[in-house]
Every structure is written in C-alpha cells, then in structure tokens.
Amino acid sequence: VQLVESGGGLVQPGGSLRLSCVASGFTFDSYTMNWVRQAPGKELERVSAINGLDGSAIYADSVKGRFTITRDNAENALYLQLNSLKTGDTAMYYCVRGLVYFDYWGQGTQVTVS
User: Fold this and answer.
1) Nearest of 21, 6, 17, 7 to residue 73 by alpha carbon
2) Which residues, in sequence order, are bridge partners of residue 104?
C-alpha cells in the first residue's frame, strides 16, 4: 500500500490550495479515505472523510464550508480543495486509509498559511 500526497505550499490568508493523494496497492474504492492534519504542538485532527462507493463526505466543523473532499476511483486519487485559508489551517496534511482504524498513512504535505 502506498499513499503519496502533493499540492501543499505557502499561501496567503484567504487563498486556496488543492491537495492530491495517489493511492496504490489496494482496491481503492473499497475504502473510506481521509485527510488528517497535524499542526505543530497540536493533536491530530481528521479534516474530512469520504466513502469509497457513494462519495458521501464528512467534515470537521473547523473546515466546513471552506474545504471540499473528492475522489476519483478510476484514477485511485483523493483530493482536498482548500479555500478561504486561515493561519490556523497551517499544518501537515496526511492522506489516510480507513473508517475507524487508520491503517495506512502517506508521508504528508505541508500547508503553510502566512
């Protein structure tokens, strides 16, 4: 199993970014996928999750209305559109497999809002 994120970077407050994650080594559409972030000195936070088959999604209250999670099962890809970014969104963002138990993690992509 491999999860490879990309798309992070430095952006000003109010800006946007699109994170991508390419998955391999498993049947992608059989799994719920997540974006999880960790800011320096803070706990891990599940930002969003998306069901493998019907595409239903959930969001943390902190990002609701600003972030959008999508997936392309044909391309084994997971995305996170980040809009109206705030300094508090600064964190390492991880692509993670699983619904309750997170068993595989990508290496992360850094998002810095400043």
Assistant:
1) 21
2) 97
Cα torsion 104, 20, 93, 63: sign: negative
Tokens of 24: 């391999």
Which pLDDT belongs to residue 71? 97
Q: Does 78 score more than 90 pLDDT?
A: yes
- DSSP assignment of the chain, as one string? -EEEEE--EEE-TT--EEEEEEEESS-GGGS-EEEEEE-TTS--EEEEEE-TTT--EEE-TTTTTTEEEEEETTTTEEEEEE-S--GGG-EEEEEEE-SSS--EE---EEEEE-
Q: What is the DSSP string of 82-113?
A: E-S--GGG-EEEEEEE-SSS--EE---EEEEE
Sign of the dihedral defined by the CA atoms of residues 93, 13, 41, 64, in that order: negative
The predicted-structure confidence for 82-93, as pLDDT tens digits, reads as follows 999 999 999 999
